[in-house]
Amino acid sequence: MSVENKVFIYDTTLRDGAQAEGVTFSPVAKINVAKMLDSFGVDYIEGGYAASNPKDMAFFRDIKKANLKHAKVAAFGSTRRANVNVAEDKGTRALIEADTDVCTIFGKTWLLHVTEVLKTTPEENLAMIEDTCRFLKENGKEVIYDAEHFFDGYRDSPEYALQTLEAAAKGGADILVLCDTNGGRMPNEVFEITTLVRERFVVPVGIHTHNDSEMGVANAMEAVRAGAIQVQGTINGFGERCGNCNLVSVVANIISKTDKTCLADPAQLKNLKAVSQFVNEQANLRDNRRAAFVGDSAFAHKAGMHVDGVRKVSHSFEHVSPESVGNSRRILISELSGASNVMEKLIEMGLDNIDRKSPEVREILQTMETMEKSGYVYEAADASFKMLIKKVLNEHKSFFELDGFRVIVEKRSKDDPCLSEATLKLTVNGDQRAFTVGEGDGPVDALNMALRNALSEFYPSIADVQLADYRVNILDPEEATAAKTRVHIQSTDGEQSWGTVGVSENIIEASWEALVDGVEYKLFLNEEK
Length: 529
What we know:
By secondary structure, the protein is an alpha/beta fold. The chain contains 17 helices and 16 strands.
C-alpha cells in the first residue's frame, strides 16, 4: 500500500455516511455515487455492511458490472463473535460472500466495551481480532482493521489498546486504522498517540474520526502529520450523530496545503464541488452553502473592504483559488454572480464550441441564473441542461406538444391499494393527435406509462427508455403543502443514462417536466446517430 507522500482516501459515504439521520441512498444512487467516487479518484469505496441487509449485498453484486477504473470496493464487518469458530461465524462468512477484494473489520479496543458490551474477556477479544484478520487473509483479502474507540481505549488502558493492534498485526492486517469513534478527542492527543503507534508498528497506520467536537477534519489532518497514510471519512461529512470526518475538506487540505498528495490524479481537485453536489443530490439533501471549499458562500464577498481587497489581490481574502476546487468567486452585489461556474459546466459537458464572448453565451448565463433562482439544479440533470441550451440557441425541436393530462388516484377501500391512472392528450409532429391512458404504481408512474404509450407509435425507440431513479426535494419546507418541489429523474435506454429536472409547486407538474426532458433527450440522441 505504501507510496511515498501518498495519503490513501477511504470513502465510507455509502456505509457510515448512510447511517446519518436523514440520509438514505437508493440502490441506483449507491451505484451512481460509487462511479462518481471512482472517477474522482478515491482509493477505497466502502459499499456497506456485509451482514446488515440485502440492499448492501445487492450493491456488492451490482458494482462488479460498473467496471470501476481505480477504486477498490470494501465490504465492512466485525470480528467474529465471542467463543465462535471464525469459519462458522455468520458475519465473517458474509464478508467472504460479498466477494470484494478488500474487507474492513472493526474490533474492540476499549476494555469498557469488551467487558460491558461484548460481555467477554480481554483475552478472548484479542483472539477474536487475530482470528478474523488471519481468516480473511487466508481467503485472499486485503484486510483493513478499524480499531474502534481506539483513543478512548488508549486513554483508559494504553497497554491493552496496543495489544489489540498487535493482535490485528499478528493476524496479517494490512493497515491499522485508529478510530475516534466518539468524536471527542483533541488534535494534540491524536497527533501524539498516532505518532507513538506509527513508531511502534511496522504495519501502516490510518485514521477514522468523527465530528462530535467539530474536530473531525482537524484530527484527521493531525494524524496525517503524524504519519498516517490512510484517511477514512465521508463526502460532505455525513455520518452518525454529528457526522464523520469530511473528505471534501481533507482532500482539499492535503492537496493544497501539504507536501503530500491524494486521489489517483490530484488534478481532479477541480471537480470537488461537483462531487459534493452530486452526492447531496443522490441523498436528497440540500447543499450546505457555507461548506468549506465547495459551498456557494465559500468564496462569496459582500460590499466593502473585502470586495475591494479581493478585486485587487484575490489571495488577500481567499486561502485557495475558487477554481482549484471547482467553485467560483461571487461578488454579492454583481448580477453576474456564478457566471464562470456555469461556463465551466458548459466545458465539462463538451459544449466548448460556443464562443464565450458571443451574445448567445450571455443569454445562456442569464437564463441559467433565472432558472437557478427558481430552484433548478443541473449537477445531476445534464440532459435538462442540454435541452435548456438548445432552447436558448433556438436549436430545440419540439417532437410533441402537450394538449393536456389528467391524473386520478383512487383508493376503493381501506384495505385496497391505491390505483393510479393518467389520461394524456398530445399533438405529435405538429398535426397528429395522440390520446392514451396509462396505469401505474403511483401518479408519476401512470403519467410515464401514458407518455410512452402515446409516443411509441411515432418513436418506437421510446420503448427502450426506463426510469431508473426518481427523487424529490422540497425547496421551501416552511411553505408546507404549498412548497415548491424539485424532481430529479434518472432515465436509461440500457446503453446510456441521463438525468433530468423539473420544478413546480405541483409535484405532478414538476415530474411531467422532468419526464418530457428525458424523452426529448432520447429522441435527440437518436437524431445525432
